[in-house]
Specification:
The chain is mostly helical. The chain has 14 helices and no strands.
């Protein structure tokens, strides 16, 4: 027998005989227990016999989980900014960027759904729609897109509606950044710092001037400059997510209306005009 024949005859398995593995699992917390896998893996309930409905369910469920983590990190970043602790805020904002990338990549999976595939179970959705994602709405609100009209679709969910109303009235991530600029001695107008946070943010020349000063003297204000670039990255990735969402919807249903009552692709195209940190985009033309 040749050496190659001897190699091919060996069992194709990993030897665990010398590994101190815990086999007596019923007496200890298991991986499944810790992750609550029974509930997570049992949360998919297709309403039809269509093969691709499982794909649709899991794509949206995992997206909601990533959004939950994104909100968790966003709150942590805002707390750091309130304490003027920018280095840990940078770490959190960087992590948020990677989470956003996962949210964007998931559209590539959903885009494998053909129009015929989707049509086989679309009627099972009824009026349910991603437009009704309260976590997505909370993300936008906390980042700075304050729109009181949009949260009313959630008034039937008392807990979600209360969270959204609280976020609407609270400072956004950008508000916290502007307060930080003011504390650092930049002349942010009082009307920007003390305002009705539930109202949509309007760009102000004092904020543009402050960010311009940061960019012109980036070595002196390196941490604020780094913060500004991380905010731009966050906004840019959100735009990538919105664009991928729009193109995926267009690929699958064309110009049909959405199940939630919106105009579908046309509505999603409007959202591409939104920017959370407008003055940071303005300064690029002024530099």
């Amino acid at each position: 027998m040749s050496a190659s024949d001897s190699t091919e005859a060996r069992p194709l398995q990993v030897d665990v005989s010398n590994e101190p593995i815990h086999w007596d699992l019923p007496k200890a917390q298991t991986y499944g227990d810790y992750l609550d896998l029974e509930r997570i893996l049992g949360a998919q309930h297709p309403r039809s016999a269509a093969h691709d409905e499982m794909l649709f369910l899991i794509v949206h469920q995992t997206s909601e989980l990533w959004m939950k983590l994104l909100l968790h990190e966003l709150r942590a970043a805002m707390a750091c900014l309130r304490r003027d602790e920018l280095l840990p805020a940078f770490t959190t904002l960087n992590r948020m960027g990677h989470i956003q990338a996962q949210l964007t990549h998931v559209w590539e999976v959903l885009a494998t759904l053909t129009p015929a595939d989707y049509s086989s179970f679309r009627n099972e959705l009824g009026r349910s729609s991603g437009f009704q994602s309260w976590q997505y709405r909370l993300l936008e609100c906390t980042l700075g897109n304050k729109n009181s009209a949009l949260i009313e679709v959630h008034r039937g969910d008392v807990r979600a509606h209360a969270q959204l109303r609280a976020a609407l009235a609270a400072p956004s991530l950008y508000d916290e950044c502007l307060q930080l600029l003011s504390r650092r001695g930049f002349g942010i107008d009082e009307s920007v710092l003390v305002r009705d946070y539930a109202a949509p943010y309007a760009p102000h020349k004092s904020v543009t001037a402050a960010w311009l000063a940061v960019y012109h003297r980036s070595k002196t204000h390196w941490d604020l400059y780094a913060l500004a670039e991380r905010l731009i990255e966050l906004d840019h990735r959100f735009q990538d997510w919105r664009f991928s969402h729009m193109k995926t919807v267009e690929r699958i249903i064309g110009n049909k209306a959405g199940t939630g009552g919106t105009s579908g692709v046309n509505y999603l195209a409007k959202a591409l005009e939104l920017r959370f940190f407008p003055e940071l985009w303005q300064v690029r033309s002024a530099l």
